[in-house]
Predict the 3D structure of the following.
Amino acid sequence: MSKKHNPASAIQDLKQFGEFGGVNPSITDSATFTFMSEEEMIHAFHGEAPGCFLYSRHWNPTNRYLSEALAAMEGTELAWVTGSGMAAITTTLLQLCNSGDHIITSVTTYGGTFAFLNNYLKKFNIDVTFVNIEDHDSIRKAIRPNTKVLYTESMTNPMLQISDIPALADIIKGTDIKLVVDNTFTPMIISPAQLGADIVVYSMTKFINGKNDMVAGAICASEAFIEAISSVNDGTAMLLGPVLDPLRSSMILKNLGTLHIRMQKHSENAMYLAKKFKEAGLKFVYPGLPSHPNYELFNKIRNSDFGFGGMIAIDLETAEKAAPFMELMQDKGVGYHAVSLGYFKTLFSNSGKSTSSEVPEHIQQEMGLSPGLVRFSVGLDHDIERTWEMIKACLTELNYL
Ligand SMILES: *Cc1c(COP(=O)(O)O)cnc(C)c1O
């Protein structure tokens, strides 16, 4: 684990030229590729022709450039890019588990991930144990001989809990269990693979692309794992076909070049709001302030150049109080009442009613998800003081302050 790994510098140091010397690599919009000899094609289908492209569901040169950039960012050997974040997550889990296997996961995950683990995997007779990811004893106790995966999010959705990745890696050391970490909320800020994660998954729909104009995902892992998922015989990615379109890859690659600056600005703006929320006496969650129970851990494991992230939540305690607040904020121009995150505009939604609505109410209660939790993805607002004045005006108009 190198302390020196810097995700932004690793991306900056790449030299990816286009075939005519373009500063952006050329886009290869071809589904299939020609071979000069039959022998070479046969080799390629046996995985014995390195550098040859067969078919774009398997590999495409443009996807390769983006994958290399993502691998550089994470410090993994390789990556593979998918058509959505869910595709990255489901491909990874279906590759690691056979029917009859077992997964241990944080109970607080993205709603779609929760639904996949809780409902969909029943089809394959894959058992899932949900734990509080901070309760390391319960994780140790949950381990079975058939456990294949320990799954978590670096910063959990929507509770903004921080996973102690080094400690989790320690728990599974010496076993066959793989630690899979969804780093969607904290690209650049946390480098899970540098902290001991085996596989890092992303929804690139969010911060990485940052434009809210597409869905996309990524799997960052060892070369062996990427080879396994893309095997023509039994690779989950090759056979289920969740590959990202190369035109989209080229767009994301260009946006990756500004990710470090965007993360800094999202973090700076969220920190500003957190301090104002505190001064105003609001009930809120932000892991960048010492009052958050995971602050010290977060500070220890993060790459300190990029702040504490752009996600913050206000707890208004009831859905009845949250609804008019969000409607008013959209009306007054604070941002958009929409799910998703990592956009240049501020987005807000009531987590329990939207992105975590797949989580049954009793489990929402168990994980401490308040029905009035308004989650913000703080945008790249130039004048965040002005944004705060707008939020404050909404709170005042509704008599919440
Ligand atoms: C959005 C999200 C996903 C799913 O990604 P899609 O690109 O929408 O498929 C997975 N994990 C987290 C943490 C997310 O926020």
